[in-house]
Amino acid sequence: MSTEVTEVVKPVGLPRLNEPAPDFEAVTTHGVIRLSDYRGRWLILFSHPADFTPVCTTEFIAFAEIYPELQKRGVDLLGLSIDSVYSHIAWVRNIKEKTGVEIPFPIIADLNKEVATLYGMIMPGESKTETSRCVFVIDPDGILRAMIYYPLTTGRNMHEILRLVDALQTTDKYKVATPANWKPGDKVIVPAPRTLEEAEERVKAGYECTDWYLCKKEL
Amino acid sequence: MACISADGTLTASARKILEALSESATPEEIVHVTGLPLFRVRSGLREMAQAGLVEEKEGRYSLTESGKQKL
User: Which domains occur in chain A, in start order?
Assistant: First the structure.
């Protein structure tokens, strides 16, 4: 019998789309916050690798720049990294001092990696001590609706985050889907028919159809 | 703590929340009066309830005697 001790690696799952986003209570730069405090509002929970690092600083400035647009859409922002709340406070103050940009949203100080683990934000192949650049879009009912994962080296695209929010909200409001590269004002996709009868009715319905399964309409 | 400082004094946002409770109110009504974000009002009410400054009944918050004395 082998006496070799093997390390037990606890599997860490990723949260799943269209299921309730994992709840948490966390220390932030705006006090102790629970995920449920955002119920009734859209929320973008996002992680960054570390405070006082160059790509993250450009991202925080960019998140602050789109914050008013997100607020118009009923969306709040909540950042996270495995840093202390004192580090977050110092970094936010430094960004304001050096660039004039005020960071208006709270940042979770996830020193014990509790939230990062719940949401699968740590990619050990990249770093065991830093969170990757993750984005989780959570709807007003607390359901996880979208996830984006970027590596440590690549700053996120704020236009895409706004576009994603617009697409999700348009889908909810009009019960439609959105095609590749869709942006507000473009035609949307009528959900594909699921029966032969629906398919035959669809092509006569007056939509702009390439075929029975791909029909678009103006909103 | 976001509402009650280490020396026991109220932060500006905590004072705003308490001042909005001249009558009992829901978190959403407090948001309307104070202009504070909903998450901030909910987390603040939770903290001040734990400190005995406000109490909740059927989703509405009101000041306790300690809460009134803080103002």
Answer: 25-156 (3.40.30.10), 175-219 (3.30.1020.10)
Q: Rounded to a whole number, what is the distance in Å from the CA of A23 to chain B's nearest CA?
A: 14
The ipTM is 0.90
CA distance A128 to chain B (A): 30
Distance CA A72, CA B37 (A): 13
Q: Do A31 and B38 touch (CB under 8 A)?
A: no
- CATH code for the domain of B43: 1.10.10.10
What pLDDT sits at residue A6? 55
Residue from the list B28, B38, B47 with its beta carbon closest to the beta carbon of A31: B47
Identify the pLDDT of residue A168. 98
DSSP assignment string, B30-58: HHHHH---HHHHHHHHHHHHHTTSEEEET
Summarised one tens digit per residue, pLDDT across range A37-53 is: 999 999 999 999 999 99
Do the domain assignments include residue B5? Answer: no
Q: For an interface test with B, which of A27, A32, A43 has the most B Cβ atoms less than 10 Å from its Cβ?
A: A32
Q: Domain containing B30: what range? A: 12-70
* Two tokens, residue A12: 């860490």
